[in-house]
Amino acid sequence: MCTITIYFESKMPNKLASILLLALVAIHCTQGFYLPGVAPKDYADTEPVPLKVNKMVSAKTQLPYDYYSLNFCTPPGGPKLSAENLGELIMGDKIESSPYEILAGVTEVCKVLCTTPNEVADLKAFEKRIRQEYRINWILDNLPAATKKTLIDMGGHKSYIYETGFPLGVVENDVAFVHNHVNMKIVFHTSDKFKGRRIVGFEVDPQSIKHGKYDPNIPNSYPETCVKPSAWQEVRSDTNTSMNITWTYSVEWEYNPTIQWSSRWDVYLKMTDTQIHWFAIINSLLIVLFLTGMVAMIMMRTLHADFRRYREMESQEDAQEETGWKLVHGDVFRPPNHRMLLSMFVGSGVQVFTMAVIALMFALLGFLSPANRGGLMTAGLVLYILMGIFAGYFSSRLYKLLKGSDWKKNTLGTALLLPGVVFVIFFLLNIILGLEKSSGYVHFDVLCGIVALWFGISLPLVFFGSYLGFKKPPSENPVRTNQIPRQIPEQPWYMKPIVSILMGGILPFGAIFIELFFILTSIWQHQFYYMFGFLFIVFVILVLTCAEITIVMCYFQLCGEDYHWWWRSYLTSGASAFYMFLYAIFYFFTKLHISSPVSAILYFGYTLIMTLMFFVLTGAVGFYSCYFFVRKIYSSVKVA
Question: What pTM value is reported for the model?
């Protein structure tokens, strides 16, 4: 069987050319099916096991930094960059080689890595990062380093959780201490079916030790303080004196027959309390399913009563005055104001919707597992570009239905509006990252490559989809539109546009706010998210909820003889994005401890991008649900 692997090689001489190709598509014909991260590596005894370093992160600043931005030991010849895909580059990952020498099956006891001389500026940098609670991320055999913590409940039972990375240091009595020694435990598995060792766990226990003197000329010598530590290694910049720091490490190999290679990621994917997660998700699903079922029953009973009453009126010889939603049949399909803008929003929403559906399918199949770093971001970007054909098609179809004629302007707006707003926000945030010298800064040539993908692939696809949409004749409305618009009577306060829109957005937000908490936690507190099964269920319920609440609000609006439903249907379900942004503000002040204005700007900037994408997605779902509902009810009633 042949598999297609898409990757981005960041070390190519012409990075821009490699981005434009988006990746060289390599077809590997193998005997079985390959998923990312499902290719075990067997290490023979004494075979080198490379340890790689990644960016340093902190939940307090949200600014990632390069590992070697601090004065750590460097490998001979300097660190070498590893190949990175497009998603890793956008997310600020910077995977490099390290000087740590690890041999398969070989135990090391306090091996000296190096001694670094640190000037006052170096000590200030260490002290600042320690106080900002930065964590170091290492990678061994594609497994991230993890620290093991013990939890004891009220009954005295012990349980263990794992946190990715390990702290750079600690602060005690307002003094910063750096972790200059690490105890590495490498868990491995062996079997008669393969030769060598398969790594199934990578635990790191950091320590701060003020090392004494040792003779570097004696092989395998190390400071006695490594075995009997007497003090911690402090880093103080207020003394204005330089300081030497000795870096050491120990390696322990532990055999574990119960952990299989295929399940080695389980400890990382179960970092949150699964019982709370299950309870919250099931509780949310039950509430939403009950509400949507109740809404569906009310709608069916009400509509059936309306149809029965109208049929009885039609069968009577004496004509009776029309009432309710049937009264506005001559205006219900009247084109709204700003129809081109509405078409652009709807087309962009369909583009995001199709991207989300396909990405979720790939995630459920395991293609976007955490082992495939940057895979989710890469897949989302590629799918969004390719789904431009759907944006152009649905935008042009709606624009033509609304009697629009300037199809080129409509198509260009569809291709540029949402991506343009997102790119401007991302570009401004990227400038801030560059000024802060963060590793999250996306270099100019990568940005040029993304723009080239946008104009070179996405824009032509939007025009092609628009051509197909305009070429197809528009759908005929089930009723004729009067030449003179009907006057809309005064509406009660609860049916005012702003009130009804805000009321309609509550229910879709209620379907996702529990899962939204875990998503925000994984993004801003640097945890893994792999609950794609839950996410898919929540997404389906979100779509159903958006459809039903929009139909209900549209029905009440038409019964009130208000036929301006086009924009209202889009904004009713799209208003859930407003509550999403409010919840993000609540999360910022209650769960995060960010005090830096720069970090706050980054948080709300990226949150705004997510909110915009969510707005157009839910708005498009609500609009088309309401559109098909209106066509259905007016085609089912005889109009004189």
Answer: 0.85
